[in-house]
Write a structure and sequence with these properties.
The protein is mostly helical. It has one domain. About 75% of the residues lie in helices and about 0% in strands. α1 (about 5-30) packs antiparallel against α3. The longest helix has 26 residues, at about 5-30. It is a multi-pass membrane protein.
C-alpha cells in the first residue's frame, strides 16, 4: 500500500494541471491557436467583443483593459500552477479570477453560461487547491 501522502500529491498535481491547462487553453484560443472547429473566440477581436459583453458595466477603455489584465493573469497563474509555485497564493488568485469571470458571466449572460463552461467548478477547485494541507516543503 502506498503511503498516505501519495494520493494527496496526485490529486493536487491533477488539479493543478487541469486548472493550468484550462487557463492556458483559453489564452491560446484568443490568440488563434485552436482550429476554428473547436475555438470559442478564434482571435483577439472576437475575445474583445465577448469581454465587452461580460463587462457591459465598464467604460469601453476599461473593458478592453480588463481583457488584457485577464489574459496576463491567466498566463501567469497557469504557468505558476504548472510549476507548483506558491500554491496557496496561486490557488487563491486563480479562484478569485475564475469567480470574477463566473460572476461577470452570470450578470451578463445568465446563470447557465458559467455552469456550461464549468467556471464555478474551476473556481471551487482552485479554492480547494489553495486550502490543501501537506504541500511538499518547497511549495509552501
Amino acid at each position: 500500500m502506498a503511503n498516505n501522502t501519495t494520493p494527496l500529491y496526485f490529486h493536487q498535481l491533477f488539479l493543478r494541471i487541469a486548472l493550468a491547462v484550462a487557463l492556458l487553453s483559453a489564452v491560446a484560443d484568443r490568440f488563434g491557436m485552436w482550429p476554428d472547429q473547436v475555438s470559442a473566440w478564434g482571435n483577439w477581436e472576437n475575445f474583445e467583443a465577448y469581454t465587452r459583453k461580460l463587462t457591459f458595466f465598464l467604460p469601453e477603455i476599461l473593458s478592453k483593459a480588463s481583457g488584457y489584465v485577464a489574459t496576463a493573469a491567466e498566463i501567469v497563474l497557469g504557468l505558476l500552477l504548472l510549476a507548483g509555485f506558491q500554491l496557496r497564493w496561486t490557488g487563491l488568485f486563480t479562484a478569485l479570477l475564475l469567480a470574477t469571470f463566473a460572476l461577470s458571466m452570470t450578470f451578463a449572460l445568465g446563470i447557465k453560461a458559467p455552469f456550461d463552461y464549468s467556471v464555478w467548478v474551476g473556481s471551487a477547485g482552485a479554492f480547494m487547491l489553495a486550502g490543501l494541507n501537506g504541500f511538499p516543503a518547497r511549495q509552501g
